[in-house]
Amino acid sequence: MRILLYEWSCSGGLRGPSAAAVVGEDGILPGDGPFQVAAATVPVEGRAMLEALLADGVRRQGWKLAVLVDRSLSIDVPAGVQQIDVDGATEIEALVRAASSADWTVIVAPETAGVLGARVAAVREVGGRVAAPSAGFIATAADKQATVLALAAAGVPVPAGRVLQAFEVLPEGFYLPAVSKARGGVGCDGVTILRGARDFKPDDHDRRLEAFVPGVPVGVSLLCGPEGHLLLPPVQQEFTPGDRPRYLGGVVRPHPSWSHRAVALAQRAVAALEGPSSSAPAAHRALGWVGVDMILGSADDGGADRVLEVNPRLTTSFVGLSRLTRESLLGAMLDCCDGRSVCQSPGLMFSAGAAFAGRGSQRGGWSFRADGW
User: Reading across the β-sheet that carries 64-70, which strands appear in turn?
Assistant: First the structure.
């Protein structure tokens, strides 16, 4: 099996034509806009995911791993892994060329401005196999408003809200506190909690304005394939305090009381974006890694739980979860993509009593700790 790994920020994207759309010009933008957040977080989290994929992938016997690396970067590539150097200006061409000879290609990229969708489509156009959802699934998940509408139409609980067009003012009478977020973005791009009308500032990009939902922030990841979905342990997410939260990492807790609610809600969310079984299944199929972010409220019956968004790609939860498995989590994902059942695989057993929490270090790294109970 020949497996190709591509992570946008480490594989040439930061020096490529789509960089400005994701992190602003030169990765630096004054003020408090969404680009400022993306410029600080996308490279850090991207590198963490790529290094975790490499460390995890070498555990799988019988694989030949290759990774695309920006020529200007120094990545710790394990022995035995083929490194393919890439120039930013031609990173898509390099991806397509390398993917044409791979059995599977894993693409990690932000959904912003169609970056993820374009690279997945480019590889599939030349016959490459990508461990990623269909174009329709990616397009819906990349648009936070479209995601919420699809979820609500399927009866999945979501926060009440609406779209704010560029430069539109705060609607009179909108219930506060509320959350303002970029309509198309990654992580906490431009996320602001509005306690009062004075906290609101019009933006030159479309945004989603939604009711603030109190509760526990949780992320659930799924390994998706043609034979079904395998749900991984829920991750309780951690953010900085204040009205402009930034993602810090997560903790896997042993059998929390809300675990069953989280996995059930995640499964419903992915099914909602896939659509009814009577529709063309390939048009909105989930494949590979999909993450679902939600808020779990205080009601034990789940009546206050809300799904916030769906991520059609690898998320930072992989960094911690891959360290808690006995065998390759990337291998399990590709087994799912190949239609093989991994539900009974002992390699997918997670270490008992283990947890992880991520912290962005001052030097731009990403570290994890393991706790016992």
Answer: 82-86, 64-70, 2-7, 104-108
